[in-house]
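JOB MANIFEST
job_type = single_chain_structure
chain_count = 1
residues = 153
[input]
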Amino acid sequence: MKTLEHKIPPPLVGALCGALAWALAAAAPEWRLDGGWRLPLAVLCLAAGAALDMWALLLFKRQRTTPSPLAPGRSRTVVQSGPYRFTRNPMYVGMALLLGALCLWLGNPVSLLALVVFVAFITRFQIQPEERALRAKFGTPYEDYCRQVRRWL
């Protein structure tokens, strides 16, 4: 399955998983949850996910390194400040929060399967290959960073 590594842009994976969440919710309408808590929590997840993504992108721009997830070998440095102090992948965490916001808005726990698919796909076909490329490029300093900071949260 190496053919899928670094081939599908993560935002597209997120959008496809969003469509999957929508389809799953539509396929099981009897599982829909009602409650006034869903919308505020969805808005909170949306805001947190968007803010995390923008913050992480801004740090990449400041460090003058590529934010392209399809070309980790072009990285000039390993960003370790801001949200990168508590997760090695804040952009993916941000995307997961955006997808979680959609699932909350849909109000159907079955839609959360799409979030599981997103995390599994991104971990296997994006993060693990990125980590191999960054280890090859930056060596021991990157290894040390990986020991100190978790992959997701």
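[summary]
The mean pLDDT is 94.
The CA atoms of residues 3 and 125 lie 9 Å apart.
exit_status = 0
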